[in-house]
Every structure is written in C-alpha cells, then in structure tokens.
C-alpha cells in the first residue's frame, strides 16, 4: 500500500441537482440528442445511430437504450450504450471537487461497444498498439498505447507539454504506471480500458485509490487526491477524462473518452 500524503486544498461537494426532463431526455435524464451527437462526433465514420439502433459500418447492430432502470452498481456491471452518459463528467475547469456518492462519470462502459472500437481480444488490440516515449527528456518511459483515433499522438502531445513544465509539476508524470494491459478491473469480471490501449496511469507514487481507504463512520469513502488540476487539463484537451472525478476514484488514471467531454460541452 502506498503511503498517503496530506493534501491541503479548498474542496467543493459536487451537487447533482434534479434536472426537469424534456421530451428529448430519457427517464434517467440523459439528453438523447446530445448524447448521440457526442458519440458520433467522437468516433466519426464508424457507425450510425437511428432511433434505438447503433449500426456499425460492417453491418453489426447494437441497442442504444434497452429501457432498463439500473442501480448504481448495475450501471457499472451491465450498462447499455446510452447509460455511459448517465453522469455528466465535470472538467478540471470546475475546480477541486469531492464527488458525490456513486457519482462515477466514465466508469460506466459498455464493453461490447469498446470491443468494436478497439478489438475483442488482446491479439486484435495488439494490431494497433505502438510505443510512445513518455517524458523523453526526463527519463526513459516507453508506454504501449493504441494508435486508433490518434491516441498515441495525443499522449505524445501531453508528454511534450508536461516535460516542459517546472519540475514541481513534471514530477507527477515520472515513473508512470503504464498503458496497454489486457486485464479485468480488480474485483470484477469487466475489462479495464487498459485492455484496449486507451488508458494511461501517471506517477503511481502520487496516486490515490478509493480501495486503499476505509469508509468513514457514515460509510462514505473519504476522497483523496494529489494530482494538480493543471495536469488534468493537459489530458482533457486531448480527449482523456480523469479518474479523480469519480466517487470510486483512481487519481493516477486517465482514459480516452472524448464522447464524455463532448457531451459535457453540449450540456454547458
């Protein structure tokens, strides 16, 4: 277990206000038009969405919304595609936040959808993997990452920007936890986004993870973070979301999810 270092900051609780439903919103509050537009814009040319059907360029089809109401736990275990937009991801511009209980924007992933994007096996994903030289001026940290959607080039841009920052900032990128790793998420049977080469962990020595902390006397997981939001901003500009915005937080973790950033932009 990593030693925890205290972090002094002003924090604000994420307030999830009830939003009146319109005809364009599903029963879970997802803005259907904006969610579909965000997904199409994030991965152009791969599929179309008509009504409740996602049709891939090879003719395969998937259900957009199966109409099932899900608990927070079920959203993680068995979401449909629409469920991925259940929570609106708050960007770094919102400042320091303590996520509300079970507020996990980005942890909801339809596995079948991601297998169509990146490959349904380690071998299939491997056809698109390449090596990014992470922080080449500061050390030798080769990272295996997918080249699909320019993820490798995007990570290189983040690396270039981070290594030019002062040492008290660039240190958060040293000794990264890695990129591609075909594996399930600990304690589950669900594939990690690392399996698709679309996730990256920065310096593990400065990371905090929800499972390492005992719940408080009210049963709530205490939030901890040491990753500066200026670094989070670098990743978000390239289409990555941050695990530090989750109630079940993983502050070293970034994954390529442009659809969630586009949806946030459309929602204002």
Automatic annotation (TrEMBL):
Residues 1-23 form the signal peptide. Keywords: Signal. Residues 187-256 form the Peptidase M15C domain. GO terms for molecular function: peptidase activity. InterPro entries: Peptidase_M15C, Zn_M74/Hedgehog-like. Pfam families: Peptidase_M15_4 (PF13539). The keyword Signal applies. SUPFAM superfamilies: Hedgehog/DD-peptidase. This is Peptidase M15C domain-containing protein. It comes from Mesorhizobium sangaii.
């Amino acid at each position: 277990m990593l030693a925890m270092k205290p972090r002094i900051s002003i924090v604000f609780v994420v307030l999830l206000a009830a939003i009146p439903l319109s005809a364009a919103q599903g029963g879970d509050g997802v803005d259907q038009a904006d969610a579909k537009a965000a997904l199409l814009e994030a991965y152009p040319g791969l599929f179309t969405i008509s009504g409740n059907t996602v049709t891939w360029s090879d003719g395969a089809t998937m259900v957009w919304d199966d109409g099932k109401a899900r608990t927070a736990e079920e959203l993680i275990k068995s979401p449909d595609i629409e469920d991925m937009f259940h929570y609106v991801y708050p960007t770094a511009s919102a400042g320091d936040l303590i996520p509300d209980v079970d507020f996990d924007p980005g942890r909801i992933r339809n596995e079948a959808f991601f297998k169509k994007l990146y490959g349904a096996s380690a071998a299939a994903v491997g056809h698109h993997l390449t090596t990014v030289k992470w922080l080449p001026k500061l050390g030798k940290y080769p990272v295996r990452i997918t080249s699909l959607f320019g993820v490798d080039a995007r990570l290189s841009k983040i690396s270039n920007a981070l290594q030019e920052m002062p040492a008290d900032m660039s240190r958060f990128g040293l000794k990264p936890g890695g990129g591609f790793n075909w594996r399930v998420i600990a304690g589950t049977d669900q594939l990690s986004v690392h399996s698709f080469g679309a996730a990256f962990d920065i310096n593990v020595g400065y990371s905090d993870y929800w499972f390492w902390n005992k719940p408080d006397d009210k049963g709530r997981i205490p939030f901890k973070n040491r990753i500066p939001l200026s670094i989070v901003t670098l990743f978000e500009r390239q289409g990555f979301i941050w695990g530090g915005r989750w109630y079940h937080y993983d502050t070293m973790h970034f994954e390529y999810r442009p659809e969630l950033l586009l949806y946030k932009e459309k929602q204002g």
